[in-house]
Amino acid sequence: MSTPTPNLPAPPGNIVRQTIFRARLIWRLIRDPRINWMSKLIPIAGVAYVLFPLDILPDLAPLVGQIDDVGIFVGSLWLFMELCPDEIVKEHWDDLAAVTVKGSWKETEKDKLPKSTGEPTEKPD
């Protein structure tokens, strides 16, 4: 069985950014045609379980009823990533990490574009 998660660096940012990063990774893997379509049914089944009105533990009990929903959903996402080929997961991981912007950008006078006057500009020779 493949184990892509330990071979990859931690997602950038705090827990919220990490969660968004992993959600985007899973979305990209689901849309990737190289991933087996049967594997793609696992996260779909996890979402269906959360939305389905019948549960293993009834949702009537506060907190306890939601724990099984979260466990099944997170477990289905984990299993899906484990079944995806390592090289494809790493490819998407690297793509997502490459577009992550670190720091902040502040526009200065030097960076501002000239305002358009509506007239064509001359090209230098």
Q: Give the biggest sheet.
A: none
The chain-level structural class is mainly alpha
Query: What gross morphology would you assign?
Result: elongated
What is the tally of helical segments? Answer: 5
Helical residue percent band: 55-70%
The total number of structural domains is 1
Helix and strand element order? HHHHH
Q: Beta fraction of the residues?
A: under 5%
What is the average of the pLDDT values?
A: 76
What does the radius of gyration come to?
22 Å
**Which spans have pLDDT < 50 for at least 5 consecutive residues?**
none
Oligomer type: single chain
Give the total of beta strands. 0
Distance between the termini: 62 Å
Task: Please give a structural write-up.
- It is a single chain.
- This protein is an all-alpha fold and 125 residues long.
- It has one domain.
- It has helices at residues 4-7, 15-31, 37-51, 64-83, 86-98.
- The model has no long low-confidence stretch (mean pLDDT 76).
Name the descriptors.
5 helices, elongated, 125 residues, mainly alpha
What is the gist of this entry?
By secondary structure, the chain is mainly α. It contains five helices and no strands. It has one domain (4-101).
Could you outline the blueprint of secondary structure elements for this entry?
Blueprint: H1 4-7, H2 15-31, H3 37-51, H4 64-83, H5 86-98
Helix pairs in contact: 2-5, 3-4
